[in-house]
Every structure is written in C-alpha cells, then in structure tokens.
Amino acid sequence: MWLPLLQACGQAPDKAYALMLKGLYNNTVPVVAPTDLYSILASEEKKPLLLDTRQLAEYKVSHLAGARFANYDTFEATQLKNLPKDHPIVVYCSVGYRSEQVGEKLRKAGFTNVQNLYGGIFGWVNQGYPVYDSEGKTTKVHAYSRAWGVWLKKGEKVYDK
C-alpha cells in the first residue's frame, strides 16, 4: 500500500523500504545489516545462533543456512535455557517486525548479545545472499502475503495456497 504512494512522491524503492521499516521497528533490539551478518558468518569461528521467527511454512520454503526454526507465536526464551546468556543471537523474519519482538523477549530474559537482521530475509535476499531449504540452496522465498511481497525484489516469491 505504501510503495505506490512513495514512488509517486519520487521515493526510490530502497528508500521506501527503509521508510517502511522505520515505521515498523521499535528500535528495542540492535540491528545487524545483511552485509555485516554475511561477513560475520563467513569469518568468525563463534557463529551466532540464527533464529528464524517466521511460521513453519515460511521456514520450509527457505531460510538462512544453519538457522533454527523459532515460531513467533509460541517462542519462549526458556527454549534456549542451555545457551550462554552472552552467546551471539541473530533473529529474523520476513522484514524484521516479528523477530524484533522475539529479540525483546530474549533481552528481557537476560540474553545480552541479540541482534535483529535489518530488513529480515527480504533484505537478505534483496542484497543477493543465499537461502536454503531442506534440499540445499534455493531461489524461493516465502513472501508472507501479496501485500508484503512487494518488498521482495529478488528470488522466486512463494505464497500459501
């Protein structure tokens, strides 16, 4: 709904996306840019725990390599009771709204090194970074809904039937 309006006002899609995210985020969880996360995953020995906070159907279509499914609707920080409180954790969802809320739960539970992937999996894929399904690398991304799918510029959009 915002994209046509912002384009009509002369806003580029990237700026429109950033403006939309600014309106969604509460800024309660620090963000990590897709480029920075990619570098971290490629170089650091102590990898962050990646938590995909979308629905199972979304996760099954594709997710970041090594990401653990952590259903937004049912997630409780106690699910990570064996993880040290200072272990790096990166949460993500489609655009970062649901994952920010999961990140808030983690921070309230005492986890000190939690970040939200800026732009979510859409931002990740739009930057050209890979996603995977149970069979390996894929170009498919669950676009959540047709309204939210406008923000996914790369990859093959998948919707629930």
UniProtKB/TrEMBL annotation:
Which of UniProt's keywords are assigned here? Answer: Transferase
PROSITE patterns, sorted = RHODANESE_3
Name the Gene Ontology molecular function terms of this record. Answer: transferase activity
The Rhodanese domain extends over: 44-133
Q: Which domain of life is it from?
A: Bacteria
Q: What protein is this chain from?
A: Rhodanese-related sulfurtransferase
Q: Which InterPro entries match?
A: GlpE_sulfurtransferase, Rhodanese-like_dom, Rhodanese-like_dom_sf
Which CDD domains does the UniProt entry name for this protein? RHOD (cd00158)
Instruction: Report the SMART domains cross-referenced here.
Output: RHOD
Q: Which organism is it from?
A: Pontibacter akesuensis
